[in-house]
Amino acid sequence: FSASAIFTYMTGLSVGGxxxxxxxxxxxxxxxLRVLATVRRALRIAGIRDPKPHVLVYRSAWNVRxxxxxxxxxxxxxxxxxxxxxxxxxxxxxYPGMDPDAPHPVFNDLxxxxxxxxxxxxxxxxxxxxxxxxxxxxxxxxxxxxxxxNLSPITLDRPAFYSLLRLDQLGTILKRLExxxxxxxxxxxxxxxxxxxxxxxxxxxxxxxxxxxxxxLAGGGTLQAVIYFSALGLGFLFFEIYLIERASTxxxxxxxxxxxxxxxxxxxxxxxxxxxxxxxAAPRRAMWIAGAVVLVWGGLMxxxxxxxxxxxAGWNHVSRALVVVAVVAPGSLALGLPFPLGLDRSLGGGKNxxxxxxxxxxxxxxxxxxxxLANLISLTEGFSWVLLxxxxxxxxxxxxxxxxxxx
Length: 407
Known about the structure:
Elements lengths: L2 H9 L6 E7 L5 H16 L9 E5 L3 E7 L5 H14 L2 E4 L18 E2 L4 E2 L8 H10 L31 H6 L10 H21 L15 H30 L2 H22 L7 H29 L5 H19 L2 H10 L7 H26 L2 H17 L8
Helix pairs in contact: 1-2, 2-4, 6-12, 7-8, 7-10, 7-11, 7-12, 7-13, 8-10, 9-10, 9-11, 9-13, 12-13
């Protein structure tokens, strides 16, 4: 139900055609509000400034139907919808011109969910929580549910439908765990895994310091090297997770997207690592070149990859797979250089050999941190922000390239 998908569906409608979108509200009515926000975005993409006349919503006790039309709903169509709903005991939760404050019959009571209080509000009269908020959402105004739930439109950049929770209200969420649908547990699991991974990463970072001077680099710059190898671990996986998501959408196959990106990145970054030996005479220059390639590559993906994917989405599977490899290859070659260049620079021809396991440990530990962290960033901000943070982290790695150790 992404905004771009709904827009594409609408372009296939015949004159007078209607797009019907089913939404389950068995768990939370707010799911329908989020789809309404997505429909609003799709109509705005279609050039419709005021989406309200183009939407009609009716429901049963557990399910909602959102009807979308390119042309505004006429009075005759609205009257037909009202008659249809009254005959079948459906509730008409929104139609153009509806006054939510005016009395109207409610066949299926749908009280508002008070997430803060941990209860479902109730009254003697039947209630329709969707009718109370639909006009707000379609107008682009904050609705009462937006205080407790994330009602942002679903997009290809932020495609997770079951991500209603607002993590800035974590305390309230933890107090009301019994209210959460199973599908909404994923962000909390990511938070728990992130906390565990962060503790392990801190142990890997701090425990070796108990060894005193044995792990300090002879040429100085221990802190600089620690930041460098940690940043490489974070950044590499950020790039990988971003590319896996984009490839999965592009190929319409998550397994193929995962396998193709992972294999391509391992092969080409391995080739890049093999090439690092040729740069032993000028490692800092090689690092700056590799870093520049990574930053330019990431910047081009930020600006052009989504539109390029959309433009070539109709190609056959093999052609699209080759496009994925072509996108992954140049950046992965450059991503393979920094780690061996940094190791060679830090170890000083074996003089600082004790630093080797620490460097590997830091890189691995922060790679583990990157997975749940990237998932949370994608849920709250979008996958484009995962790419942005990958670029920021690699920029940090470039400027913290280890100092030369005397051999």
